[in-house]
């Protein structure tokens, strides 16, 4: 059932600019570092002489959480808006499909779109590194992959929460407002106590206890999805 | 007794303290076109949303196809097609893509999309984005979507709302054909009696959340008679004869005005008049228009 809903959802987001957004984020991040390294090439390459790839990743790293949170917010909102715009909920939910399936399909769709973004981030960072003359043989494949995906897992609570807000509130201003605020606040994440989920993406990449943080992300994410699903199942559709 | 496709018992829906639907008992038999009437805000859409499981009733039971909606929602929805208020569609997609998005959920063959587009005569426009459609076309697309899964029951909420006369005519013809051609039972809501009268067999009239009339159109029409006027050669004598027979009436403009009565009684009266050498020129039934009756029912909330 969920896959049927998902298959319909892929059709619905056609031409809505969601894929453009999903590509813009990671390529923009890499582009920004391209500018940074391009303008200060000699200085930066000298200071990172021992580990140029590590230097590049470090520069990218701090922008990933805000990009992830913003991306999560916007992807959820754009997806939900497809249904809100012309009140398609009443048609969709009067079809022989459970609300659980509809909700899970939306979650899986948002997750997969963000996975594509993370993969693009790894690829575009690698391409940038090569363009900057960093050696292909020293390329840290694992870290390049981890920089996006590990943070995505730690950001799952945010994804679940934003999806819930976007799907259940017709006024997307509320969901987007909350999401943007969280994204901006996340820039100061390193000063937060460890239990703050906004700090988890950075912790999941840098440590300590990466596994624990990822586990916490998955667990809290799952809890929020369950709560959202229960609410969505009971909600009256106007 | 014919099988009931929709049956509700003591249905209530309360918002905060306002009761939107109260003690509603709907009964719709297989193959019927049921006109669900009421002024705006009477609770029609609320009832329809409850029938489709979109909102939870506060109290009461809903049975569709003889099954409980709560426990067999998926089975019921699989056999039901719906259009709730204004049509829902994805404006950036074409008609075919819109229907495909639904087909991916309900299953069924791809060829059905072309079939339903043909039924609502949208085949020519099928490849255009729906946001460019006229309201009538969108409404027809909504009906196509409702028909996509070969439903046995079609629930249409104000399908002709906002359409021009030719659009209304088209939709009406479409709905009238459903039971005949496809054996589909139809529940169609409207706030206009004139519109429902031309397609429904049975009507339910709802006012402030309560059902105030539920019967066939024919019975509604029969309540429309408000009396008879007789034009005869000797009115005074004729009136005496009528009063002797137990009819109530008066003389006005040289015509007898009698209160409504059974067919047998009017026949007897005419027979007596003829036997007594009266010339009977005309016997005419005076009718209130259906609209008047509707207004009376809706206005006063009294049972006719």
TrEMBL record, chain A:
Superkingdom of origin organism: Bacteria
Keywords annotated in UniProt: Membrane, Transmembrane, Transmembrane helix
Membrane-spanning parts: 20-39, 59-80, 107-132, 144-167, 174-193, 213-232
Name of the protein described by the UniProt record: Permease
Species this protein is from: Paenibacillus solani
UniProtKB/TrEMBL annotation, chain B:
Stretches assigned to the ABC transporter domain: 6-233
InterPro entries attached to this UniProt entry: AAA+_ATPase, ABC_transporter-like_ATP-bd, ABC_transporter-like_CS, P-loop_NTPase
SUPFAM superfamilies (UniProt xref): P-loop containing nucleoside triphosphate hydrolases (SSF52540)
Entries under Gene3D superfamilies matching the protein: P-loop containing nucleotide triphosphate hydrolases (3.40.50.300)
Entry keywords, A to Z: ATP-binding, Nucleotide-binding, Transport
A GO molecular-function descriptor: ATP binding
Tagged with keyword Nucleotide-binding: yes
Family assignment from sequence similarity: Belongs to the ABC transporter superfamily.
Protein name, per record: Bacitracin ABC transporter ATP-binding protein
